Amino acid sequence: MKIIRFLDENHTLQLAAVNNEDQVYVLPFKHFTDVIHTANLKNSTPVHLIQEVIYQSLPLESALKDLTLLTPIDAPEVWAAGVTYEKSRDERNYEATGGKLNASTFYDKVYNAERPELFMKSTRDRTVGPDQDVYLRGDSNWQIPEPELGLVLDYQGDILGYTIGNDMSCRDIEGDNPLYLPQAKIWKSSCSIGPSIRLVETVEDPYKLQITCRIFRNEEKVFESSASTSQLKRKLTELTSYLVRDNIVFDGTVLLTGSCIVPPHNFTLTDGDRIEIEIPEIGILNNLAKAQIKESNY
Ligand code: DO4
Ligand code: MG
Questions:
Q1: How far apart are CA 29 and CA 49, in angstroms?
Q2: Measuring CA to CA, which residue among 190, 207, 200 is closest to residue 3?
Q3: pTM (2 decimals)?
Q4: Which percentage of the chain shows pLDDT scores above 90?
Q5: Which-ligand-closest: CA of 171?
Q6: Among 37, 147, 162, 195, which is least packed by CB within 10 angstroms?
Q7: Which of 88, 171, 191 has the most ligand 1 atoms within 8 A of CB, as the residue to mutate?
Q8: Residue whose CB lies within 8 A of the most ligand 1 atoms, among 110, 146, 176, 211, for a mutation test
């Protein structure tokens, strides 16, 4: 069972459930967090609550593929974990040493440490959804998408569902100096999530999810690679338990779990590239990369 949001023909936002046959059922709630709250009040679960609605209604006539999808949730904050896969550690070492292969740096330390690396990635207004543009920074020459499994959390850090995230990143800025991490990670429209939230109870094993990233330039595929969440160094609850420590976590916060897919060293995104990130249980997150209009403020 998946949750989506879409704009109907009157440009009204609708929350909907999608079953295994891709049938879409409009839900009598505006936000995914309303489903959670109502389920809690009724001593029920989101899946049961949604099933009740489905039994009493008919699916939409429009096909899922024809809907104008939005972010499945207005995540007040998006956090991200870093260096949770060997591949990420190796690539960070490469960029931090000006391009040395098999180098060893402080990224080895964070990969092996008890405490994971967690950082603030985005806020609601910086986050885009399916088919919207992600922006490229004007002052970076080495930019990549980071395809990641995203966890949708409640205020206690409990995992309610899974989504896909794109942690757009500037390798040259982070490689220059790790203290530049916020600038290498956060700018206007530098994060994308969607296309759905797969309810936690309907995923058998979150460590068996296949993530595929494809990049198209002028509709020609210039990159494709896949990875599995089985390669994740840490447990998902290990990441969430550090996020909630002495912190305020809002219902609907998204935590990205790190990237294991990195394009070749000579690859950088350019204006018009189309990025597809697929986790079959969740869907395909599709975004165009757009060059930022150079502002006069730099
Ligand atoms: O340490 C920097 C961030 C790494 C990251 O975003 C990732 O591993 O996905
Ligand atoms: Mg990342």
A1: 11
A2: 200
A3: 0.97
A4: 96
A5: 1
A6: 37
A7: 88
A8: 146
